[in-house]
Amino acid sequence: MSSSKASTMPTSIIATCKQTRFHVRDDSGSKGIHIQGLNITIAPSTPTAAPVDTTSSTGGKPAKTRAPKSRARNDGIEILPSADLQLKAGVHYGFVGRNGTGKSTILRAMAEKLIPGIPDNVRISILQQTGDEHGVSSGSPSSDTAGQGGIKDKNGITVLQHVMQSDGFKNEVERKIGVLSHALEETENTWEPVRAIRKLRHEGLERELFLAQKNASLRSGSRGMQARKDLKAVELKVSESAKSLERNKEEDGPSEIQKETQEAVDLLDHLQCQIEAMKITDIEAEARRVLLGLGFKEPSFEQPFESLSGGWRMRCLLAGILIQKAEIMILDEPTNFLDLLGIVWLENYFSRLRTVDDDRTVVLVSHDRNFLNNVCEETIILRDQTLSYFKGNLSAYEENVEAQKLYWGRMKEAQDRQIAHMQSSIRDNIKLGKKTGDDAKLRMAKSRQKKVDERMGVQVSAKGTRFKLNRDRVGFHDSLRDEIEVPADEKGISISIPDPLELKFPGPLVSMESIHLRYKHQSEPVLNGIDLVIHTGDRVGIMGLNGSGKTTLLRILVNSLKPSQGTVSRHPRVTIGYYSQHSVDELKAVGQSESALTALSLLSRDAGGSLAEGGVRGLLSSLGLPGRTASDVPITQLSGGQLVRLALARIVWNLPHLLVLDEITTHLDFHTVIALVEALSSFEGAILIVSHDRYLVRGVVEGKRDPERENGDAGNVDMDIESDEERLRRRDVYVLRRGKLYIQGDGVEQFEKSLQKRVAKMMPGD
């Protein structure tokens, strides 16, 4: 058993796996990953938690220390106790699991190659949810750095330059070319080329030393002995190289200087050939295409990267990942900062990778169900601290689970009836045998009891054929049959939104007439003649590209912004609950200013005595924040999904008649999105949604089931059985474009088709 650990984070990732003398393989030609017995634990970084066989990100000499395994496991949070990690080359995977189960931790352990057994020659790039310096990484020390890790100086770098320089392998080649070129230009100092080639050679040997140490730590038996011999040989080379770096010109003769100068010239020629083979002009063209597809305009290519907002910076990082040629591409919530045009473009981008036989493996985490269904060929499921795999997209997996539940449920019911009948027969035979002294009856009862004890269970093989004991259950077991296990429903987040109080007299809740807005007198209008009326029970969805003015329209509707022209009328008794797309950030700021503040204390303060503590707890529990999570956990320690539920509680405690929701699904996993769709669908008040999530708008506004599951049931929401009130409910989807609202007769599908046409013109070769 061997382990590896990250020491650069507030918490450390400890990864171990099954590595024996019979298991380690040389995967020099493989681009896939197959790790057995994977254990991943998050442990707090303490002075006693020393790194294990690790090294710095600059490729320095590894520090060989040993940490106690049992203590590390007991002190940390176990993510995976014993799982199999399998990634096949060229397959697009969707990685699903509830928030907080450790998806991001597993992906980071993969990308940073903290997991022993990941081939060192496999290049891995990752886009993480955060936009920090670690948002893009490539993994092991001295390996090909992806994204920001390969950019030495970001000050003043433009958006286009940032994307082009995100390929760490190319950056490393260019760095070496720079070192050698500068040294060879020093014609007056003949010693500079020698120093340069020795420095680069020493870096290569340090890299070789790191790999040798890794191999020696993984192998055992005869191969382990050979690996340790190889390690000693490499250590000797590194020592000699270090001594050569310390020598000066006088200690080497002219012939040695001439020989190493020629080596520098040859290496420079080789590196320049590598750069030419990379087709730099093609990289720039590809970077421009990707940036345009992700929503950047041509003039913004020359904008400084540091001047970008968080959302646009993440798009730039995503562009840098897409143009690389890493064998494994990991994207953690890439759609969070994209509008629907960017999402549709990204779907087409991945579809194009398959058509051109691109062998890059893609691992995607996303709350957008439609995106996962359209992109992913296979699904990885993280559940109950295990990894399972399904050949098909998310909707196919859910449909399969429902079919399996039905199949095994019926089999178990039938067998339970059979067992009950046999048990009754056994009791009767025993009773009759003892009464009459009939030994045949007793033997029959004993035989049937043995059949019940040993022969009841799964009656079919894994292939669906008739079960045969000597073929399908070889070896020693407690019983001769596997017990029939019906797949259990995954315990989901329950969300319940209280209905509003009935208004005493009818009328529209909100009416907007001829709304115009200009931020500057001479500028183009952001809103240009908006008319919108919302009545009780209405379902209205507004979609559009980023920057089209959707949030501005909502702010006018909730009276936080005044229009330049036009009138907004509201029902005298209407209560509006407004979820802003910045609600989570606002909660984080409140939590940082008051570190002891909890969800319970914050909501009690908002209610101002209108709700007793029991009422506040009940509301928080109905939204997925029960018990001690509400009363004991500070807001600063709540996850993004929990902060969304708290923000929702803050706007529904006073029973609003109209819910205005702006991008509410950004921090939610798709399980919670399903629960939210169910809760909003049963809400009796009016709802106005602004979102790029097609599943949310289809489910809540259009009242449609998941189109990917024609025979399934989207989130257990019964969309077919509607009341008369439900059928009369207004359901309209609008698109905000050039300051005007355009109703979509075919709903989300109509808008999606228009974006597909735009994307088709943007893709190369069309």
From TrEMBL:
Residues 44-72, 131-153 are annotated as: Disordered. Its main location: membrane. Keywords: ATP-binding, Nucleotide-binding, Repeat. Residues 65-409, 510-763 form the ABC transporter domain. It is a multi-pass membrane protein. GO terms for molecular function: ATP binding; ATP hydrolysis activity. It comes from the Eukaryota. GO terms for cellular component: membrane. This is ABC transporter domain-containing protein. It comes from Helicocarpus griseus UAMH5409.
